[in-house]
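Give me structure tokens for this 457-residue protein.
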Amino acid sequence: MPKARVVPNEITYNAAISAFEKGGQWQLALNLLSLMPEARVVPDKITYSAAISACEKGGQWQLALSLLSLMPDAKVVPNEFTYNAAISACEKGGQWQQALSLLSLMPKVSVVPDKITYNAAISACEKGGQWQLALSLLSLMPDARVVPNEIHYSAVTSACEKGCQWQQALNLLSLMPAVRLFPNAVTYSAAISASEKCGQWQLALSLLSLMPEARVVPNKITYNAAISACEKGGQWQLSLNLLSLMPEARVVPDKITYSAAISASEKCGQWQLALSLLSLMPEARVVPNKITYSAAISACEKGGQWQLALNLLSLMPEARVDPDTINYNAAISACEKGDQWQLALNLLSLMPEARLEPNEITYSAAISAVEKGGQWQLALSLLSLMPEAKVVPNEINYNAAISACEKGGQWQLALILLSLMPEARVVPNEITYSAAISACEKGEKVAAGTWPFEQHA
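Here you go.
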């Protein structure tokens, strides 16, 4: 018998395009769509919805909008699925204006927005830092006969968190029970993060303590936000206490957790604790990153442990972590505090080899190091190199250089540097004038010591 010839129809094409959409193959989905006219198969709403959804999943928001705009020419009327996919594509692409524009067009084409539509639009506003618009959309939902759910409230709370609106975040959390909604881990995490960002560590801890009562299990994000809140509030003991509670709560700490706890120790001058936490990370199967090392090196720097700071910096490549400018700055500052000006300069000289560009903090630490070491020539040399390195000197750089001249008995150079500051658009402060006057006094030029004030009166 002759074989029956199977002719693909719109159902076949729709199934294939949907399969590619689910598999994240947006190129193949669009290719099939383009072949349909040649096969004399007319695309329908399902075809376009699947193709737009494929573009959304593939991060191709421009293509998603292009397909949506082609539908009227193809005499296909978009529906809520089509618009939802297009708005989600805009949300993923960080295009909140486009998302809101599509939402506003829906009533004009007799398409009713649903929960998914509003969720995508609110998430777009959240990602775009538009917390006011996110709140506005939430308030408009009842008028559109769409009942908000936990997902909508969580997204708006996250928008408030990103906008550092902790009061608004807490207000949303308190409103949920009134509309028979219960906050979930995402909602609490967003509210705790909002408290953390705005320096409300007590509030962050209070929210965390309320979670078990609300039958919500804290997760990694929740603990990380609470530990970060304690870190920002200078509460290193509370940070460590939270970290110690995580295993009991069956929550595994990650890089963010340890970085926050180490930063808390660093800010409070607990360098031993910072190093202890860093040493525990391999045992917890957590690989330290740049942020972790930076906090630990800074802790050593603040604790006057320059040898340990340099040791940590040297261990980073071995741990497959490339040091950055922040790491070098902390190490150079540690050398400066430890009166190791030669080592500070050596680190500065290694930065170009590591493809790192020194900034004003790097030069400030290096100039201060040579100033402390009585190396006024080197201080002036470093200051003169800054413009070449495209780094603009600030008052800290000038103050350190003038202090170096003062220590080296170079009162004329100290006054020259002071006179150059207005031209460099740097305003002298009390430290600048004190160093310049001290330089004049040491050079037995007390009369000249009044000159800076006369010049800059």
